[in-house]
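dumping this here so i dont lose it
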């Protein structure tokens, strides 16, 4: 045997072994599982299994033994029945945006990413969507008929988790939460039955699905929402550098400015420290106004001396406007992040805002990103007990995020986040948005659902007494 031959043989032997190894899980999968109509069953390690099992937060990522990707409601039903027959624990996943990884599982994931059909019905002011559709794609499909749906502000967030937890977005002050616009849904329950829920059908389940969170009651296979005809709207996308004093003033004034501009405008304010006493401030959102009036509104916050570039406020329905709506890629890139949140009941006094900036100055530049999201308006037209989402009558929600870097330890990032969060604590309601969850939250069920918790647990006992649908922070039975 020549040296070359032996090298080839060793190589081909290794390749063959690798091929056998990579086929092994598929063979095992085939042996262990029957063919399920409407379900593709992949080993989590396979290319398809990986492609469909994305996690936005890299820190929560898990590769399941199997992914059961469902393409029909009947497929979801078959997957649930099969998992129950096998005694397999599982998580439900659509696009993997849950900050706390509640859609991740080591053993089995039932996936609804493929159920992503979007059917706008502008004539009846309705849209029907699958649970795996990106909210941004629903917006884009509605744009040609100048229809609007108020929901999340980030293109690739999935319709299922977003709606079931509430759904805060750039039209919330005008049209309420995404769950407030939900008219009906179809769900697979713990027995594998395909059921409908609306105000008039299974109304207890419908109540729970508006804020009660994903992964607790069943697997959503389709949702229908009310939409609105909005002939004129602008996308706001302003980014400026500011001194600490100026940043402090903007954050303070924004609290009153939001309310003063009326319901037609909803914005989020982003704050990041760049270096000592220097900040980046972003104002993103939407307004139902002419371009000229929108400029006037934004100037009222930033002051006459700040230049607002014409490209920062654009017609929503223009090419540039729609490009701003599509503010992320179709492929979900995982980032390692820490995230927490608080609701703030009413505008904070100047000294409160100052203490937030004092805390920011103690953190490394870029360590903590604040996203402050305006609430109020139409959200408060709904009583706290009318849906499972209880946080009505609240001025805004603050999301604290740290994008993890290799330069600092996890503990250092955590300390920074907690330092800034502590400055907000005297003004926080104690409630937490279930769609901005975090694993270390104490008394999480009370924080997420407040006084609605007993009723939610009763719905859970009625629809899922065996706790088939559960994760670390799903609605408890008792
Ligand atoms: C970058 C980013 C931007 C965000 N922006 C916003 C925002 O603007 N407004 C806002 O309100 N929230 C926002 N969120 C939070 C988001 O609403 C939640 O993470 C939400 O749970 C995501 O749902 P998903 O279906 O995309 O994610 P997944 O991680 O797939 O699922 C989230 C939860 O829903 C469950 N679930 C998934 N599919 C189904 C189904 N078919 N039936 C039943 N349960 C299901 C899962 O088990 C899990 O518990 C954002 C999150 C990220 C990461």
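and the seq i came up w/
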């Amino acid at each position: 045997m020549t040296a070359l031959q032996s090298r080839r043989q060793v190589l081909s032997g290794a390749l063959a072994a690798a091929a056998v190894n990579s086929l092994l899980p598929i063979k095992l999968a085939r042996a262990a599982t029957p063919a399920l109509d409407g379900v593709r069953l992949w080993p989590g390690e396979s290319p398809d299994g990986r492609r469909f099992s994305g996690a936005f937060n890299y820190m929560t990522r898990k590769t399941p033994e199997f992914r059961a990707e469902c393409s029909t409601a009947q497929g979801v039903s078959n997957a649930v029945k099969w998992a129950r027959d096998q005694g397999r624990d599982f998580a439900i996943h659509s696009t993997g945006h849950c900050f706390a990884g509640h859609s991740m599982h080591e053993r089995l994931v039932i996936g609804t990413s493929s159920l992503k059909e979007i059917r706008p019905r502008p004539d009846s002011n309705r849209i029907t969507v699958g649970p795996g559709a990106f909210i941004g794609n629903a917006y884009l499909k509605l744009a040609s008929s100048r229809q609007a749906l108020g929901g999340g502000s980030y293109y690739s967030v999935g319709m299922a988790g977003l709606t079931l937890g509430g759904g805060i977005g750039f039209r919330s002050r005008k049209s309420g939460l995404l769950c407030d616009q939900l008219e009906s849904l179809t769900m697979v329950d713990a027995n594998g039955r395909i059921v409908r829920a609306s105000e008039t059908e299974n109304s207890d389940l419908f109540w729970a699905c508006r804020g009660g969170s994903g992964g607790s009651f069943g697997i959503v296979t389709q949702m229908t929402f009310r939409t609105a005809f909005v002939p004129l709207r602008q996308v706001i996308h302003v980014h400026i550098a500011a001194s600490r004093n100026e940043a402090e003033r903007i954050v303070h004034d924004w609290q009153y400015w939001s309310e003063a501009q009326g319901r037609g405008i909803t914005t989020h304010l982003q704050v990041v420290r760049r270096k000592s006493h220097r900040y980046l401030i972003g104002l993103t959102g939407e307004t139902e106004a002419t371009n000229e009036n929108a400029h006037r509104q934004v100037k009222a916050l930033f002051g006459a001396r700040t230049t607002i570039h014409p490209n920062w406020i654009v017609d929503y329905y223009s090419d540039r406007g729609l490009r701003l709506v599509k503010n992320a890629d179709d492929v979900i890139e995982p980032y390692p992040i820490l995230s927490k949140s608080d609701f703030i009941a009413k505008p904070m006094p100047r000294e409160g805002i100052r203490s937030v900036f004092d805390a920011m100055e103690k953190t490394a530049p870029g360590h903590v990103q604040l996203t402050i999201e305006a609430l109020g308006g139409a959200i408060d037209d709904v009583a706290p007990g009318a849906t499972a989402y209880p946080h009505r009558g609240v001025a805004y929600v603050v999301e604290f995020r740290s994008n993890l870097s290799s330069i600092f330890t996890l503990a250092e990032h955590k300390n920074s986040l907690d330092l800034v969060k502590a400055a907000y604590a005297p003004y926080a309601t104690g409630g937490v948005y279930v769609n901005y969850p975090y694993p270390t939250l104490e008394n999480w069920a009370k924080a997420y659902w407040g006084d609605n918790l007993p009723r939610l647990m009763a719905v859970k006992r009625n629809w899922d007494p065996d706790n088939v649908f559960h994760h670390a922070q799903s609605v408890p039975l008792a």
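The two ends are 72 Å apart (CA to CA).
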